[in-house]
Amino acid sequence: MTRSRSRSASRRLWCPLALAAFAACGDSALHGGATPTAPAPGPDTLVAPPQGDPRSLAAYFPTASTAWETIAPVRLGYDTSALSEALNWAGQQRSTAVVIVWRGRIVAERYWRGWTTSTDSIIASAGKSVVSAMAGELVRQGRLRLDTVASAYLGVGWSRSVTTESRITVRHLLGMSSGLDDSLKAVALPGTRFYYNNPAYYQLFSVLRAASGQGIAELSRTLLFDQIGMSGASWRFNVDTGEPGWILRCTARDMARFGLLALSRGRWGDTQVLADSAWYASSWRSASPDNANYGLLWWLNSGASYRIPGPYMLPTQQGPLIASAPTDLVAALGKGDKKIYVIPSLELVVVRHGEEADASGGSPLASSAFDEQWWRRLKLAFRY
User: Fold this and answer.
1) Among 57, 90, 111, which residue terminates a domain?
2) Angle (CA) 77 92 256, round 5°
3) What interhelical angle do 80-92 and 369-382 show, nearest 10?
4) Would residue 381 count as lying in a domain?
5) Do residue 106 and residue 158 come from a single domain?
6) Which of 30, 35, 105, 379 reaches 20 to 30 Å from 137, CA-CA?
7) What is the pLDDT along the chain (384 residues), one digit of tens a residue?
8) Residues 236, 154: one domain?
């Protein structure tokens, strides 16, 4: 169970449905039956975009200090009844927040269990994709090279493998294919076997520090958080599991902002903020021969097989990661069903924050039964 900070105990629901505001959601769902009062414009309020054909709307990038634009699901041709059912189902699965964004505009936003737009909590391994993007920016700046051995940044002796350490590159660490086990001993040749290895992943924080001269907090603030308005995001040292690495905590809207940045391939408005299209294309390709659905710290849905986190010799499973989701979906996934889905073909970002879903079973580190069950419902709503 994650620990969170909430500034309000009241339940809030934003679900914009055309200019007849909240008609499909119902005022009672929004403010307990009271007639809503229009809030003053600010970062926690919502405003409608211009009317007309939504296909003519350019991508929108919210600032940190102004209201976030919305767009009605009905304008996008979504099935609003199916969308409401999907959101209600997510709320029944111990979710604390769901945010759905199309071309940067909020399509639906809901909070449960006392959460609001300003409540933050850890997002577990979903933060790995943030590390990927920052690595991509350092590559773009020429300060980091993927195919350089990790020892060039970490020093000799960072692992417990005398035989293979000199062959493990930064790319292997990003792709979970270092060939090391959790004790950082060699069990396979680098680049030959996927293993979801957190101790090896945590080495990347030292790699980024060596390449940039900045710690993760300062680097993230400079490269990312301040650039796109992730004002609720921060790193903390991971004391929950005892693993020696950093873990990201943020709000659901922060997660949506990062997803939007990925959707636009690192661009925020007219500025190329974090990495570039070449990096996202590279990080959204399979990085190991036995997991077609894992790239450089991103989960993919386009491959014909995958391997989930777990014991080293878990077998490869056939099929896409999430059968009901679009094949071009990429995702930042974290333990306890923290989700940032990015779907370029639908121009959508879908975020789920919360505790481990009742539909998951077990203790999923990344993908779980929740993904498939939710996307069966979202498929009906988005009509793809």
Assistant:
1) 111
2) 55
3) 160
4) no
5) no
6) 105
7) 444 444 333 333 333 333 233 333 332 222 222 223 333 345 566 777 667 788 899 999 999 888 899 999 999 999 999 999 999 999 999 999 999 999 999 999 999 999 999 999 999 999 999 999 999 999 999 999 999 999 999 999 999 999 999 999 999 999 999 999 999 999 999 999 999 999 999 999 999 999 999 999 999 999 999 999 999 999 999 866 667 789 999 999 999 999 999 999 999 999 999 999 999 999 999 999 999 999 999 999 999 999 888 877 677 889 999 999 999 999 999 999 999 999 999 999 999 999 999 988 656 788 899 999 999 999 999 999
8) yes
Does residue 311 share a domain with residue 176? yes
Adjacent-strand bridge partners of 105: 102
C-alpha span between 361 and 336 (Å, rounded): 10
| Under 8 Å between Cβ of 194 and 174 | no
Q: Are 91 and 198 contained in the same domain?
A: no
Domain that holds residue 56: 13-111
Q: What is the DSSP letter of 177?
A: -
CB 118 within 8 A of CB 97: no
Task: Answer yes or no: is 349 within a domain.
Answer: no
How many structural domains does the chain have?
A: 2
Report the length, in residues, of the chain.
384
**Residue 281 burial (10 A CB sphere; 0-12, 13-18, 19+):** exposed
DSSP, collapsed to helix, strand or coil, labels residue 209 as: helix
- Let me know whether 139 and 279 are in one domain: yes
CA-based torsion, 355, 360, 366, 367: positive or negative: negative
- The verdict on 34 and 158 lying in the same domain is no
How would you classify the pairing of strands 46-47 and 68-69?
A: parallel
